[in-house]
Amino acid sequence: MMLAPSPPLAVLAPPAVVPQAHVGAGACDAGRSVTAGRLLAGGILLAKRSWRRQLHRTARLAVRQKPRSKPMPPEQKVYPAKELCSRCGFCNTSLVGRVQEACAFLGEGMERIDALEAKVHGRRRRIDEENELYFGVTEENGLRPIRMASESRPERRAWTGVVTSIACEMLRSGRVDAVLCVGSASPEAPLEPKPILARTVEEVLASGGVKPMLSPNLLPLEELWEVRGQDIRKLLFIGVGCQVQALRSVEEDLDLDVLYVLGTNCVDNPRDAEALQRFLRSASETPETAVGFEFMQDNRIHIKHRDGRYERIPVFSLKEPHTCTGVIAKSCYACFDYVNALTDLTVGYMAAPWEGGKMTEHSQYCVIRNARGQEMVEAVSHLELGDPAELMRPSLLSREGVVPGVLKPELDLAFGQRQPRDGPPRWLAE
């Protein structure tokens, strides 16, 4: 990098001091000499300090050394985890040489979460404390309902706008230099993911919307070693469990001043765009207009469409339910980090009491795991945190028959039993 030349010493020197009238000529000459000498010395000192700052800044930028491993191309068909690969993007970066210790589906896999919890949060979860047993490390009163004030919800958002608003405010306030989030592959394919390093609030807002399939969220990390990414010292990463585990395993290699991790809950993802469309055809009357869906607490699939309308389909009334077999990625069946235990802050909805209404206006829940998570929540003034006791209320919806009912078609098909072409009538499923 070319360094700008230091400014002339005359520019650095302050105006000369004019001697008072009663001082003799000889004394004036001597005074001028001393003053000039001091000014020269001061100018040299200032120039050296400026030069050192530039050198320090240059050296700082050069510290981030790119790993030597060659990334796998994105079109790669077979990855180290084979059929269990979640296509998280890790192997498509120069970090691929550390895949054995970072991948959630290789070797000890998610068993590493125990040790990583202590590394990230300063302690492991307390298994004798029920909330931590299920939800992971939690700050005091850190498990609670969360929602956006209705008048403050951004227009472009995935669901309620909580995650989007936090990401925007972290950028706006200068807490981070960039946000790694997921945009859409194209306007024609809004549900297909394209991870990006967003530098502006506008870029974050433009990435709004749901992408319900496997996503290579770690892929943009490769930009950190390029010239355009060298100035990113503070990063907010948004992702799900398998991605976050890999990220935490190599956090030191990223040479960041601070890394914030904001996560969402994750259960099942379609493995690719074709699988996603198969599912939508089974669930929706107009799959071509769907812009998002979610399995909600009322045991229905809520499908949002471009025109703003919603379909609420009972899980058991799916058309051709057997077509859903093979839709969900095998990595999701092998994952047990639904709660995203290695984030600083997790936001989800399944632990939140069912309120009815639209999923985009429903309350969610959050798990504040450490001081960074607390900072993210406090950064957004229009976030409303509810009473932790609200999450402890018993559910009014029985799930005893739901889980076996959902699993039965999968198990029957796995053991060779034929499935009916259509689900039960809508009135019966209701």
The secondary structure category is alpha/beta
Separation of the first and last Cα atoms = 67 Å
Q: SSE order in H/E notation?
A: HHHHHEHEEHEHEHEEEHEEHEHH
**Total helical elements:** 13
**What is the average of the pLDDT values?**
81
Strand content range: 15-25%
Oligomer: single chain
Shape call? globular
Q: Radius of gyration in whole Å, from Cα?
A: 28 Å
Query: Biggest β-sheet: count, sense, barrel?
Result: 8 strands, mixed
**Low-confidence runs of at least 5 consecutive residues:** 1-31, 55-61
Number of domains: 2
Determine the fraction of residues in helical runs and give it as a percent range: 25-40%
Count all strands and give the number.
11
Strand order of the largest sheet: 3-2-4-5-9-10-1-11
Task: Please characterize this protein's 3D structure.
The chain is built from 13 helices and 11 strands. It is an alpha/beta fold. The chain folds into 2 domains: 82-271 and 328-392, no CATH class; 284-327 and 399-430, no CATH class. It has an 8-stranded mixed beta sheet. Strands 6-7-8 form a 3-stranded antiparallel beta sheet, with no helix packed on it. β6 (290-295) and β7 (300-305) form a beta hairpin. The longest helix is centred in the N-terminal third of the chain and has 38 residues, at 25-62. Mean pLDDT is 81; it is low at 1-31 and 55-61.
Question: Which characteristics define this entry?
Answer:
430 residues, alpha/beta, 2 domains, eight-stranded mixed beta sheet, three-stranded antiparallel beta sheet, 16% strand, globular
List the topology elements.
Layout: H1 9-12, H2 25-62, H3 99-102, H4 113-121, H5 130-135, E1 143-148, H6 162-172, E2 178-186, E3 189-198, H7 201-206, E4 234-239, H8 241-249, E5 258-264, H9 273-283, E6 290-295, E7 300-305, E8 310-314, H10 330-333, E9 345-348, E10 364-368, H11 371-379, E11 383-385, H12 402-414, H13 426-429
Parallel strand pairs: 2-4, 4-5, 5-9
Antiparallel strand pairs: 1-10, 1-11, 2-3, 6-7, 7-8, 9-10
